[in-house]
Design a protein that fits this description.
Rossmann fold; 2 domains; 7-stranded mixed beta sheet; elongated
């Protein structure tokens, strides 16, 4: 631990922010790499004569911040960490950085099943960092969960995140493409969730470079119209869901009506497009029959 006066840190902080970037990213850097939380930082302003201890020295922190500013490298990848709901998750450039809007998937599950629910089986297709499945496994300790991903390296990250977040054993991980690892669970699943790649090719080409150049293309690009993977998930869902089982999908902001039609075509009912906090139709949900 490296001792430093609060006054010295505050002067250094203002110097770094004067170079550019946003305060939230800088505070994230200080928290995840420096070991100083935002609440501790706020206390320093009130008591600038205090002393604190950093995990890394200021020169190292400055080099990371300058990498972020110069190359548009996401601060989450540089620190190897991100926060999602109450979880602190390991991330690398092999996994998509879980977005705050995706947190609403857990609230949708609460609305459909209630906060206390009998034992059931859920599956997440394309788990990435594991955020959604881990959050559900923690919220519903009586449930059994299955999280899948096509990439073994990604699954290793998700498994580590689960072990770091929980002492439970109600979540299992399987490698494979969408439904492929779930052959033995046909007709047995109560709830399937997926935040698949859904960005249309034209939109993908115009993404900000901090997304396009650093986050995995496989987790973002959804084919020409963005619906390639969503179609496959919906078309095969009736084979795996129990009758009256639910499917919850995240989709692009303008895909809700198209996803709704796909669900109707495949015998889903109780279909609803759910808005995110910006009023955008971010999720489409339906019950099989």
């Amino acid at each position: 631990m490296l001792g430093i006066s609060a006054k010295e840190l505050l002067i250094w902080k203002n110097k770094q922010l004067s170079k550019g970037g946003d305060r939230q990213s800088f505070e994230f850097l200080l928290d995840c790499i420096g070991g100083i939380s935002t609440s501790e930082l706020n206390l320093l302003i009130i008591n600038p004569e205090s002393k604190l201890y950093l995990k890394k020295n200021l020169d190292f922190l400055e080099s990371v911040w300058e990498d972020h500013l110069l190359n548009s490298s996401p601060i989450q990848y540089l620190s190897g960490t991100t926060f999602w709901r109450e979880l602190k998750l390991k991330v690398t450039n092999k996994v998509l950085i879980p977005r705050s809007e995706t947190e609403l998937i857990i609230d949708i599950v609460f609305k459909v099943f209630g906060k206390k629910s009998k034992k059931l089986l859920f599956a997440e297709l394309g788990t990435g960092s594991g955020a959604i499945s881990i959050a559900l496994a923690l919220e519903y300790p009586l449930w059994d969960g299955i999280a899948t991903d096509i990439d073994e390296d990604v699954l290793e990250i998700a498994i580590k995140n689960y072990k770091n977040s929980s002492k439970q054993s109600n979540l299992k991980f399987y490698c494979g493409d969408w439904w492929t690892p779930l052959e033995s669970f046909k007709g047995k699943i109560d709830l399937v969730i997926s935040n698949p790649p859904y960005i249309p090719r034209d939109t993908y080409e115009k993404l900000p470079k901090e997304v396009k150049h650093f986050e995995p293309k496989i987790a973002l690009l959804g084919g020409e119209d963005g619906l390639k993977h969503i179609r496959e998930i919906i078309q095969k869902a009736p084979l795996f869901l129990k009758e009256k089982g639910w499917l919850i999908l995240e989709n692009h902001f303008d895909q809700g009506e198209k996803v709704k039609k796909l669900l109707l075509k495949n015998k889903f009912t109780s279909i609803e497009i759910v808005n995110d906090l910006s009023g955008i139709g971010r999720f489409t949900i339906g019950r099989y029959k």
